[in-house]
């Protein structure tokens, strides 16, 4: 089949053959796979030929080409996002004709006589840099102006957070929730349609308190019990640890645990740990060596005794011969 019959879209790096047909229907899956690999190889070759026909620029990594605009419209996996509804401030700014302008990052601070940041650390008009606040005629005597200023700032932050949540509710109703909030929307009651968490019952609170008590190192042994507190209900078995302080029965407990672990290991892997035939042969060899050693000791002791007796007899004969000669 000629290459001109292929339709190549270099913008999407895609090629297809609109006139391709099976000569005979495939009888097995292997034939379908084989035919697909052959046609795919031809299409990839057609894309490569079209790429090398484009004007290119040389680079250290090789020739670089600029792809043209795609000609094939591919379907989206998801629908287009809906536009976000305007906030209250955006509606007010549009009504009054207020245009958003970019502000400078640095601002001149008249108190210190230096340029400082508009926001963030060491910013302009920082409350910590104000040593004196002039009292007003409407201020009540005895009030702390610094505390009032902190209270006012806190109320502004709370109001801003309230407005932000209201904007999120409106965006959720319109179906245009921001992408960074979509995952958290399942847990946060923004729209008001989600059920609030149920009230915890008394029994559940008691179980939680019991579990928290046994989470200490002593297992809740030395914790103070609340009035009416019940012991926790355990469905599973928990490990028992040795006491942290050494006592009279500490060594016996450790020895018992060690022997238990060793017995389990030996019984489980006895065929790998102990070779019975080798052990019997080694025992027989040691036994024979011991018997030979004992036999050698007996023979040497008997020889010494015989030599001692012969020495005594010879000494007696020598003394008797001396007497006769006199």
From TrEMBL:
Biased composition (Low complexity): 294-304, 317-326
GO terms for biological process, alphabetical: endonucleolytic cleavage in ITS1 to separate SSU-rRNA from 5.8S rRNA and LSU-rRNA from tricistronic rRNA transcript (SSU-rRNA, 5.8S rRNA, LSU-rRNA); ribosomal large subunit biogenesis
Start-end of Basic residues biased regions: 305-316
Keyword annotations: Nucleus, Ribosome biogenesis
UniProt biased composition (Basic and acidic residues): 146-163, 221-232
Major site of localization recorded for this protein: nucleus
Any one annotated GO CC term: preribosome, large subunit precursor
Classification via InterPro entries: Ribosom_reg
The keyword Transmembrane belongs to this UniProt entry's keyword annotation: no
The UniProt record lists the keyword Nucleus: yes
Subcellular location: Nucleus
Region entry Disordered, spans: 59-88, 119-163, 216-238, 284-326
Family stated for the protein in its record: Belongs to the RRS1 family.
Function: Involved in ribosomal large subunit assembly.
Protein name: Ribosome biogenesis regulatory protein
Organism: Sesamum indicum
Gene: LOC105172850
